[in-house]
Specification:
Bound molecules: adenosine monophosphate, zinc ion
CATH architecture of the largest domain: 3-Layer(aba) Sandwich
Low-confidence stretches: 206-210
Distance between the termini: 36 Å
Number of helices: 17
Number of strands: 19
Strand content: 5-15%
Helix content: 40-55%
CATH class of the largest domain: Alpha Beta
Strand order of the largest sheet: 4-3-11-12
Largest sheet: 4 strands, parallel
CATH superfamily of the largest domain: HUPs
Structural class: alpha/beta
Radius of gyration: 28 Å
Mean pLDDT: 91
Number of domains: 3
Length: 508
């Protein structure tokens, strides 16, 4: 039976833990790209959050830069869950459509890859989706609530385009449909998210060709008439063709989260034109902007330049894990790579270098070692430090726009405290120890998403062996050779060798 003391202690640490969790729900602030400011977070429906994040275009293996964005949103998702929200997290898979390249042209990347690899479009997407799903598990990312595909929502996209035409914000030319930015700008503000002015855009795109069909340079495709070389084609009221890129996110976000939802996220490079055009499509069809908070994760760079397939300066996530890239002098575990990512705030640029990963590995091991030490600390009625304050600092860091680097600094302070208690042979109160253990486990594993090392068979055996060797020692002290021999022979039969030396007894 549990003693009353133990029950009270458990109750107290649980109470404190829930208190902090509750406070975190009230104190969360998020940087909203729409206002360019940190804002107090207030969900549209109490206790529930709808979050949409633009997912990958699966025409090739995602590189480490792509993974950084998804890992950052995994951190955000994890913290919202730990704060006690019920979150519906939708992240799409782009498996159709024409992406606008940096020259403003519509490019069918999936079709291009399919022709190169002599496969069908969906074969290409499936091939890279298997790799992407594996990577998610490797990097300990929680699966989203739904991962809808563009090809599974063509009808929804067509219906939204029809509404936009009906509302007078789109026109049809030669089997294609374009969004009419000028007509839209008379009633709404095009550029509300990116701050782009239409006149400035004109400067940027003046030299471009392939603008012929459009009435205005800033208009963008909602539906593209099929080309003879297109590998995927759908029927539509405007003839056979393909959806434009931006429309899929409008269709899937509103289908699963409603016309107005809490958070829309993606990489910083999607802010314009993708997200700007999503807002225009939503306002132009449903009359309202999709999300209350827009969040943009910053880029993973290589020598100051954005990692990108087209620049050729990319490395693949598994190349660092298996050590097959010359950029790093040794392999690093997914835990270390993820921890390195967590040490840069999601809105900051980040460079991933060999030296940084070596330092991260040392730091991470130190933190985990300190956490293992927790269970061996001595307890008494008093703690030398205010543990509640320490735990509050973990929440405060994450409440400040998901500031994981500050959280990690606070976790290192806690590790220092743990090591000092141990080295000084000092004590910590039992309920504080329970609170600190629970909080550190929560923040390191549940929030930062570190994977707990699998317990080895030897780890489990270790306390049992301590006991058996103690009994053997007792028998030897009592000159009870029969028992001590029985133990040694029994262990040998189980494949365990016991070795006595001046330093003590060891086993293997
Ligand atoms: P894509 O598959 O090209 O549509 O990109 C998928 C996601 O990765 C998008 O949210 C991009 O913003 C993001 N992304 C692309 N390159 C990088 C990079 N170098 N660093 C961080 N995120 C990136
Ligand atoms: Zn999108």
């Amino acid at each position: 039976m549990k003693s009353e003391g133990l029950i009270l202690r458990k109750y107290k640490s649980l109470y404190l833990f829930n208190k902090h969790r509750l406070m975190s729900k009230q104190n969360l602030s998020i940087y909203n790209s729409l206002s360019g400011q940190k804002e107090a977070f207030q969900p549209i429906y109490e206790g529930r959050i709808g979050m949409y994040v633009c997912g990958p275009t699966l025409y090739s293996e995602p590189h480490m830069g792509n993974m950084r964005t998804f890992i950052n949103f995994d951190l955000i998702y994890r913290y919202l869950l730990v704060a006690g929200y019920k979150v519906k997290y939708v992240r799409n898979i782009t498996d159709a459509g024409h992406i606008t390249n940096s020259a403003g042209e519509a490019v069918d990347s999936i079709g291009k890859a399919a022709r190169q690899e002599q496969m069908q479009s969906l074969e290409i997407v499936y091939k890279y989706n298997v790799i992407f799903q594996d990577l998610q598990r490797t990097y300990n990312m929680l699966p989203p609530s739904i991962e809808p595909t563009a090809t599974g929502h063509i009808q929804e996209q067509i219906e939204i385009i029809e509404k936009i035409i009906e509302n007078g914000f789109a026109y049809t030319v030669n089997g294609s449909v374009y969004f009419d930015v000028k007509a839209y700008s008379e009633k709404h503000q095009y550029g509300i998210l990116s701050g782009r002015k239409i006149d400035e855009l004109a400067e940027e795109t003046r030299e471009l060709n392939a603008q012929d069909e459009k009435r205005f340079f800033a208009d963008f495709a909602l539906w593209k008439k099929a080309n003879p070389e297109d590998m995927q084609i759908w029927r539509s009221p405007w003839g056979d063709g393909n959806p434009g890129w931006h429309i899929e996110c409008t269709a899937m976000s509103t289908k699963y989260l409603g016309n107005h939802f809490d958070i829309h996220g993606g990489g910083m490079d999607l802010k314009f034109p993708h997200h700007e055009d999503e807002i225009a499509q939503n306002c132009g069809s449903l009359g309202c902007s999709p999300a209350k908070y827009w969040m943009h994760a910053n880029m993973l760079n290589v020598n100051g330049q954005k990692m990108s397939k087209s620049f050729g300066n990319y490395f693949l996530p598994m190349e660092i894990v298996n050590g097959s890239t010359d950029l790093f002098e040794k392999p690093f575990s997914p835990n270390v790579i993820r921890f390195a990512m967590m040490q840069a705030h999601y809105r900051s640029n980040m460079d991933m270098t060999n030296d940084a990963l070596i330092a991260t590995e040392k730091g991470y091991n130190r933190l985990i070692e300190a956490m293992k030490t927790l269970s061996s600390l001595k307890t008494s009625n008093e703690s030398s430090q205010n543990i509640e304050e320490m735990v509050e600092s973990f929440y405060a860091a994450m409440n400040d726009d998901f500031n994981a680097p500050i959280l990690i600094a606070n976790l290192f302070d806690a590790a220092k405290f743990i090591n000092t208690v141990k080295d000084d042979n000092a004590t910590i109160s039992a309920s504080d120890l329970e609170l600190l253990t629970k909080a550190m486990n929560t923040f390191v594993f549940d929030v930062l998403g570190m994977k707990a090392e699998a317990e080895s068979a030897n780890d489990r055996l270790s306390p049992v062996m301590d006991l058996v060797l103690d009994l053997r020692q007792e028998a030897r002290t009592n000159k009870d050779w029969t028992t001590s021999d029985k133990i040694r022979d029994g262990l040998a039969a189980a494949g365990i060798t016991v070795k006595d030396s001046k330093e003590g007894t060891s086993w293997n």
